[in-house]
Design a protein that fits this description.
Four copies of one chain form a homotetramer.
Chain A (H helix, E strand, L loop, with lengths): L1 E5 L6 E7 L3 E4 L2 H12 L7 H4 L4 E3 L3 E2 L2 E3 L3 E6 L7 H4 L20 H8 L5 H7 L4 H17 L3 E9 L2 E2 L7 H7 L10 H16 L6 E8 L15 H10 L4 E6 L10 H4 L3 E4 L2 E4 L7 E2 L2 E2 L4 E7 L10 E3 L6 E3 L10 H24 L4 H14 L4 E2 L3
Helix pairs in contact in A: 1-6, 1-11, 6-11, 9-11
């Protein structure tokens, strides 16, 4: 399965093409639109989120509600394009408007201008913007529809905002799906959520921004997705790359992640037991991946996000046209995007796992995919039996 | 640039093919062999490291000391293959020897057997073994030779073993190259190094293993490697994926990594200054990557390694043939491989960056690559001037 | 440079994403639209061509007429979608309309239904249709704009329709661009063109269809695009694959192609001369490619197209729902599409060559690409000098 | 499945890595070595073929005769390396020996020197040489072992040498396997074979070389391999690219190929019949591919090879160091390699089809692959039944 997307933040639309979906997958657009809405929600979002209510428009690959196996192209229109058409259009434009030369620290602005030969960071920031993640959420929503039919679910929660952490329990995807959206910061612990919102308020009052950490859990992935045989076939290669490619992510972990560095091997590795003929583990420090493969346990991925680099109070920088010291001017921006970013992580993880499943079972059509995966599950399933 | 490798731990040899090197790169085999030796060194390595002194044998792509632009194939022989030929050979073998059915927690053993239909984890562990990283170190050494000609250097150090951490300063690649190898644990702080070795001793005495953390620094990468324009063209996508694909890595970070989650934006983002016509930053929290591109600062990558899963004292598991509860039997193994793993990280990072440079400047031959990169550096270089 | 497209023949729109264009390429939409028009022209086209006047709509990647280096997404709307919305829409549809079960010989109908589990070949034919080539012509037009800035031009002509052949001279791209569109069958020889049109009339009268052959010439490609070093880096690998992937193509040749099989080596290979310090060839039997690389001469590609499989008079087949013998029912179709197909070949060849140039010179932006290519040309150029 | 190879003609060895083979494939090295021998045979081969008897040496990925799913690395040693070690070694060499500056028309010599900055075409020709195809034959032999287990067979024959053509019948792969190797020119018609050998003799006497044409037939491929859904997923895209990437190929066709251009649609397209509940075709003009997919009929691929460019009597050229007009000096070479080249085509076609099968059915191990493919065959098989 391949995926490319396109689109500037204030351009006409985001667009995406998913190539390689099997035929016969039911596409529930309400589900996709709800995922887009989840990405737009969350305490700490700025004004822009309100003017947009993103909707997917499918251009191809789906007929009468089901995929045709042909590439699925979609767009998500930018609601405020009308007011930007004269600035961001593909034809004649007034390029003297909305120029950004005081390149913002933490953004692609400066390097993008250098690399591509621009003297207006507008030409960079429009694509580097996290707005692009709306397309990835749409693609990830399609991947989730695929996974759901196979009994695989994906959830997430936020466990740190600006240093305010909750005591992070072990949740299944189902628990996260049920509960985390009930919190404005998508935190499972209401007490911590209160404090996180206060932290966001504090940042807002200071004209500052806050980052944080989120966790994605994927339940129901059968053992044996990914492979130990080549470095770039490993599931952690794919997941850590894809999550690392999400805007603002500065750290990615699987399972207990960094904490394993402080422990002895006997404290870390998940022992294996035979319980009435089923092979089970009673812990999941590995986060569902051993030797580059899913091991049948929940896949647990964590990521840390830097604070949004567009800081209202401005940061010291230079104007790339004049060389003068200036303060970075704020684009319209959020204070904290971690709750939304967690939704993006779900989407990205879902897409990677869907892709790896297709790699393992092939599959021109959903009935075939299901049947083959069920067969694999029967053989070793969620809980492996000892018929080997 | 593409790279594939192959080889079982006790097979005839590891083999690798690097496709896409420019012509005219000088290949210093002593350098490559020294890198292989660095991977084999370090406090905490077991007996095997002593019997092997890995050497690269180049089969193609190099003539009279210089690359031909044709694919560079190499092998690294496994010194103890002779005694394994009857067990691991490609022809008739005694498959009843060295069978491993008590699948080891934390390894690919169990999942690999399930996925590929084996009842002897030998068939999995031989490839899943970290022995494979010798090939990657060889490939990375070639990448380093390429980078060195362009004024780019790569160093690493260990800052945590089993929870014993050093105060991690800001080191340039040159400083790391000069000093870290002087320590048996590749730690820059001799005091901490002492404690780390004690920690390793403690693990050994307990029949246990230790993990840790290491940092790679790449100095001299010009701004503009990677791209913000598509998720999988980002430099962090490539680096975090590749590092995530290294055996035992459970966490990858860029720059201050996870710590950015606890801070406000104004505390994190590296301000930009005009110092006598040069654009400079005075901090490098971003770790050299903004918006998916190198920004001209040192690239700083950290990774956490889980403890080696082969624990001498054994861990509870099951025998996959009988279903009986057993203790995992130790393969010959190390107590701590973090100093070596840091060398692997260097190699992997070097390869990714070399690849991304070729993507940006193309380059059929070294003189062209150098000239184009110098031109790019003149334009904005290590320290960007304001000629834009 | 990567490219994916999407779109059903009677769906909302064709869509494409071109990823990896350099910044600063001027996008002339009139040029692109004219290319789309060229694809729709030609003697032998059916009614549908008249209702559609394809226009590109750019969604992203272009601002104020120039590329941003970010992915260029475009759509080409299907003009008659309105009347198909209830049949081909992504939501609820009347799937009992426009069902095709009498699978048409020569089409994807039967195999597509088997592979993807459909009982209505509509689900296959909508994507398998040559309508998709409109997207490729749009993408190829962008590639031509890129090539044109580098002094590279692409032309084509038809030299066989249904067995009526012209005496095929040696034309440069410039000659073909100037003249071939003047003929309704895009043939350079007006006498032969007359006969070709008669052949098409004959086919039409018989309720039949005609195929043919076309040639693409690319002038101005510097020596050294592609590589001899790995099978899939060869320019002929890329070109023959891409042309072979065009609907209806059953044969692809480079240079004198099949004819070289009948001749001795001394009759085939293009001798090399030193003319006043320039290295020249006086023949171009090789068609501009030797050893997997462009050699500086015109690149000459020929392809043979099978007759359109949708034959008005119908062909013996079976109904896949009933198993009954039936005649294939005609979809609205053309009698001969070879003049249009030649335009598609131009587009596909242009895209491949643009991609290979970027592989060789890299290039974040057009000024860089131009400068590097000019430098390469100076070194050996169209006509190699002996400064080596 | 991925494949890379490496190796210079007079270097130490050719090397290849096949990545992505399923576990449990039986590797019969005698079969592979016999394929290598078939490549070395044929009327018209020069002296070198006699000194070499190529043998595969497997370095990894195979244990006790079966694949491990880990990458299969192999080498094929160059028997005469010993006498070339001082010229072609990777370390210090005498680069003044065996210099080739009179660049040979029809070879990569001139362009390769220009592109890569060499003044000795030895640096190019060693890799551009058809010697590389030994590695591809080895890889293709592995692919054949895979296909054979699935009931798929691959044969070839030569139907034209230097303009001497046989009347080319319709042969199944089984017929070709049985008979074509009995002829020194691998021609199915003994009378024509006589004439072909005379043609080769004629070329030899004149100090010249001869090309020709060959056909590959793949029998037993189930319908539905490849896809119509994206240009680069089409089976013809993959096959025509891969065959086009074979040394000396100047034309590739599927089925009746170019001849379809001269016929009407009703004369070309293979009608579909219901014979006692089986869907059958009675002709195979399409050569087994419709709409980018295998349709269950024999896959028939033809290719034309240019005469070997190394002509004993020499061809006019220039010396790239002096600019002087010279005659190209002959490297040791064959007069006609078409019989061997046909074996290479088999290998390349086998690899492509094996890869496409794995894409469709996935498959970590052979039992799974077989089972899934059998299921697909039951559904529509070689001869489709009407159970849809």
């Amino acid at each position: 399965m391949r995926y490319l997307d396109a689109g500037e933040s204030h351009g006409k639309a985001l667009a995406g093409i998913i190539d390689g979906l099997p035929a016969g997958l039911k596409i529930d657009k309400d589900f996709v639109n709800n995922e887009l809405k989840r990405r737009q929600s969350g305490y700490g979002r700025g004004g822009r989120m309100k003017i947009e209510t993103d909707k997917i428009e499918i251009l191809s690959g789906v007929r009468g509600g089901f995929t045709l196996a042909s590439p699925l192209a979609f767009i998500v229109k930018n609601k405020d394009y009308e007011s930007w058409a004269g600035i961001m259009g593909d034809g004649e434009c007034d390029l003297s408007k909305r120029v950004l030369t005081g390149v913002r620290p933490g953004h692609a602005d400066l390097t993008g201008c250098i690399k591509y030969g621009f003297s207006d960071a507008r030409n960079v920031l429009e694509r580097a913007s996290a707005r692009e993640t709306a397309a990835r959420v749409a693609a990830g929503a399609i991947a989730k529809l695929f996974l759901n039919e196979l009994g695989i679910t994906v959830g997430s929660h936020v466990y740190n905002i600006g240093g305010v952490k909750c005591a992070c329990g072990n949740y299944s995807a189902a628990q996260l799906i049920e509960k985390s959206d009930l919190s404005e910061v998508r935190c499972m612990d209401p007490g911590a959520a209160e404090k996180m919102m206060k932290r966001i308020d504090e940042a807002r009052e200071k004209g500052d921004t806050a980052g944080g950490e989120a966790e994605v859990v994927v339940s129901g992935v059968p053992a044996g997705i990914g492979s130990h045989t080549q470095y770039d076939r490993k599931l952690d290669y794919a997941l850590m790359g894809a999550i690392g490619g999400v805007q603002s992510v500065k750290s990615v972990s699987i399972g207990i992640g960094r904490d394993c560095a402080d422990l002895f091997g006997s404290e870390v590795h998940d022992r294996i037991y035979n319980e009435n003929g089923l092979i089970v583990r009673r812990t999941n420090n590995a986060g569902g991946i051993e030797g580059g493969m899913s091991n049948g346990e929940d896949i647990i991925i964590r990521a840390a996000f830097k604070p949004i680099p567009t800081v209202m109070k401005g940061l010291e920088t230079v104007d790339i046209r004049t060389g003068e010291a200036v303060k970075s001017a704020p684009e319209r921006s959020d204070v904290c995007a971690v709750p939304a970013a967690a939704v993006v992580l779900e989407a990205v993880a879902a897409f990677v796992i869907a892709d790896k499943i297709l790699e393992t079972v092939g599959g021109d059509r959903m009935d075939e995919v299901k049947q083959r995966l069920m067969k694999k599950r029967e053989e070793y399933g969620f809980q492996n039996n000892l018929g080997l």
